[in-house]
Amino acid sequence: MPRPLHRGLISIYASSASTVDDLLDLVGKGLEGEYTKEESSKISDRIDRLEEVGRGRDYLEDPRLVGYYRVQYVQDVGRGRPVGGNFRYTAAGRALFKTTDALQHILDKGVAVNMLYLKFLGSIPACVVLRGDFEQLSDAERAQVEVKFQTPPPGLSPQTIKASFDSPRISFGPSGLFTFNVGPTTTVYLDTIYLDERIRIGKNRYGGRFVFTRLGEAECLPGSPADAWRKFLAQSPGEVFLPPILHDACLTGGASQD
After folding, report:
1. Does 162 map to a domain?
2. What is this structure's pTM?
3. Is residue 142 one of the residues assigned to a domain?
4. Distance CA 118, CA 179 (A)
């Protein structure tokens, strides 16, 4: 006799919760952590399981999608610059900036905000903020992206969005006293392959996967670092001359380049 449907759902939920527990333990080192091959393999396995659970679900219509998130883990697939652009993926960027936190917020009405907290020259606090509008890709658009960027199987799901980000806004100092825009606008494609009350898992056009952890209520209060994007975007950016090495480090910085 088949089990009642509600029992099956309870079993799936319990299994997913256990897998999320495991995944959170495995990615506890954070974005800047060093992961062994064995640890990376275990992380990939847990993500595979959750991606299977999420297959066919309409996460873009799920109210839990909206929230403030920390970029906890990025799977390196050898292509693209997933988080931080040239701030984290060039010698100049690494020499000038140390990443202290990376956030991605999903707001109402199709708006995403990326934040990258840094220490300039090891001591001066800085923050890069990008605001972007996003929309769901059609089946035809998604297929074009998969062909153009050779997305590995199983490809992108219908939960894939295209986010168009403004030029990065960089603020130096605790209060963002020196604020200016630098770098080009950017376009990002991100597929949501799993979502619950604790985490969101995304996949880029190259197949690289991201683990985002939802911030606690206290971390999202007005005036908190996670909410400081409002202040930085409200400030009028100045015009500043940048030495070539700093300009190169800033180009595309802060965006979830994929």
Report:
1. yes
2. 0.85
3. yes
4. 14
